[in-house]
Amino acid sequence: MSEAEGAPGAGEGQPETRTSDDAVPAWKFVKIKKERDTYAGELEALRAELQTTRTAAEAGSKHVARISELEEELGLVRVGLSDPEAVDVARTLYRRLPDDKRPASITEWVTSIKEAPPKALAGYLGTPAAEVAAPPRPTGNGRQPEAGGQPTADAIRNARLKAMGTPAGSPEWQEFERLSNAARRR
User: Taking Cα atoms as reference points, which of 4, 85, 51 lies closest to residue 93?
Assistant: First the structure.
């Protein structure tokens, strides 16, 4: 029995050529190199596919995040917060809520507080501010009340407007002159 006949792989039609006991036969070396090259090519293809998948997943997660942002903005606009500053204020207040008391979405929270919003959001939500009482309108002939002492510019202006349609020396002109003189004495 020759060394080539007893060697593994002999009988597969490949000649066994060994130069020493620890050398790999050439046919086996070529076969392993071809397999390695095939696997290396497959590995590179899989790496490229993985990179494409990662890129698509990252793009998908970016799209999902942007869709969530847009849904939130649309919800806030629907509940009355369209001003970017108002949205920032609402987000800040929403984030400050304790986790156990925070609704699932900011839109739900704004809807729930719309009747009695925090002061920071009241103006943005169209909640009417306390109405300021209008100053009292002058009554009568436009004379300044005696307790006030000095006539106001409005009282003088009103007296002049009344006097303009009357002849000089009329009681209306006399009132205008009296108020004007009193204002000059200040």
Answer: 85
pLDDT score for 92: 92
Residue 110: CB atoms within 10 A of its CB come to 25
Q: What is the pLDDT of residue 58?
A: 86
- Nearest residue to 110 via CA among 68, 129, 82: 82
Compute the radius of gyration of the chain from its Cα atoms.
47
- The greatest distance separating any two alpha carbons of the chain, rounded to the nearest whole angstrom, comes to 153
Distances (CA, A) of 14 to 10, 25, 27, 32, 106: 6, 9, 7, 14, 75
pLDDT by residue (tens digit) across 18-37? 555 668 788 988 998 898 89
3-state secondary structure of 147: helix
Helix (H/G/I), strand (E/B), else coil: 11: coil
